[in-house]
């Protein structure tokens, strides 16, 4: 069974940093591209970042570019999101989401974690 | 960036009703469109990909159609478990807002 379990969320002050983790199991993690998607309270879904299976290709949404860094450790079946210079508008539930390996122009999300809440407030 | 617009924002329906949700893209996305279902406090669940392909395990009462800029998600006979928010998503290109704003299906 595919499982994605996020951790690392919490309350942080504006300008602070946080590192999210996503532990993957039930599939060959090293064969899949992965993503972070967030959802502000009561709002819709916003794609944040993409990393290919080998980490050779990385994309960011403009809203987080230069502040967030996505990475992965295939030996540990883990995905990460380092978030720096956090702002109030980064407050959201952050989901890690798997991207199935079909040929397609951009990311699709076939499995999601349960999410971890990041709250940026003083 | 491609913009995705769903309608309606809210839909009131009864068990057994046929329900249709529309998603429009600001430019052609071919058939690179997915539909997700999200229940309160839960992660989204993939229902449909490539506009009309049913994800494994999803009930056959869900169907998708369309190509280019206009797409629909249809629930042929609404069940109690289907009351949720539905999002379309384009995967023709990377953009910060590949998702529509969502359609909440509520009990009439």
Structural description of this entry:
The complex is a heterodimer of chains A (122) and B (108). With 122 residues, chain A is mainly β. Chain A has strands at 3-7, 10-12, 18-25, 33-39, 45-51, 58-60, 68-73, 78-83, 92-99, 111-112, 116-120. In chain A, the strands form two sheets. In chain A, strands 2, 4, 5, 6, 9, 10 and 11 form a seven-stranded mixed beta sheet that branches. A four-stranded antiparallel beta sheet of chain A has the order 1-3-8-7, with no helix packed on it. The relative contact order of chain A is 0.32. Chain B has strands spanning 4-7, 10-13, 19-25, 33-38, 45-49, 53-54, 62-67, 70-75, 85-90, 103-107. Chain B starts with a strand and ends with a strand. Chain B has no helices and ten strands. By secondary structure, chain B is an all-beta fold. Classes of the chains: A mainly beta (122), B mainly beta (108). The interface between A and B is medium-sized, with 22 and 25 residues.
Key descriptive features of the protein:
heterodimer; A: 122 residues; mainly beta; seven-stranded mixed sheet; four-stranded antiparallel sheet; 11 strands; B: 108 residues; six-stranded mixed sheet; globular
Most residues in contact, chain pair and counts: A-B, 22 and 25 residues
Q: What composes the largest sheet of chain B?
A: 6 strands, mixed
Largest sheet of chain A: 7 strands, mixed
End-to-end span of chain B in angstroms?
36 Å
Q: What's the quaternary structure here?
A: heterodimer
What is the rounded Rg of chain B?
13 Å
Q: Would you list the SSEs of chain A in sequence order as H and E?
A: EEEEEEEEEEE
Please state the structural category of chain B: mainly beta
So what's the overall shape of chain A?
Answer: globular
Q: Count all strands of chain A and give the number.
A: 11
Task: For the record, give the distance between the C-alpha atoms at the N and C termini of chain A, rounded to a whole number.
Answer: 40 Å
The best one-word shape of chain B is globular
Order of helices and strands of chain B: EEEEEEEEEE
Major beta sheet, strand line-up of chain B: 2-10-9-4-5-6
Please mark out the parts of chain B with pLDDT under 50 across 5 or more consecutive residues, or reply none.
none
Mean pLDDT of chain A: 96
Unreliable residue stretches of chain A? none
The DSSP helix count of chain A reads: 0
**Backbone structural class of chain A:** mainly beta
Q: Report strand % of chain B.
A: over 45%
């Amino acid at each position: 069974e595919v499982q994605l379990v996020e951790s690392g969320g919490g309350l942080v002050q504006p300008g602070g940093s946080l590192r999210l983790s996503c532990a993957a199991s039930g599939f060959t993690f090293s064969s899949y591209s992965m993503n972070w998607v967030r959802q502000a309270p009561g709002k819709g879904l916003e794609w944040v970042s993409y990393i290919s299976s080998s980490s050779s290709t990385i994309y960011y949404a403009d809203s987080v570019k230069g502040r967030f860094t996505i990475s992965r450790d295939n030996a540990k079946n883990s995905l990460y999101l380092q978030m720096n210079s956090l702002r109030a508008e980064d407050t959201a539930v952050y989901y890690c989401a798997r991207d199935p390996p079909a040929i397609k122009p951009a990311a699709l999300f076939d499995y999601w974690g349960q999410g971890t809440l990041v709250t940026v407030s003083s | 960036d491609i913009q995705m617009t769903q309608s309606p924002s809210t839909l009131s329906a009864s068990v057994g009703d046929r329900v249709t949700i529309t998603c429009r893209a600001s430019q052609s996305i071919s058939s690179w469109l997915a539909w997700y279902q999200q229940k309160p406090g839960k992660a989204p669940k993939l229902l449909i990909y490539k506009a009309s392909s049913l994800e494994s395990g999803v009930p056959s009462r869900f169907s998708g159609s369309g190509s280019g800029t206009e797409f629909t998600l249809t629930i042929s006979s609404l069940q109690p478990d289907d009351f949720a928010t539905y999002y379309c998503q384009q995967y023709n290109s990377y953009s910060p807002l590949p998702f529509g704003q969502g359609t909440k299906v509520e009990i009439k």
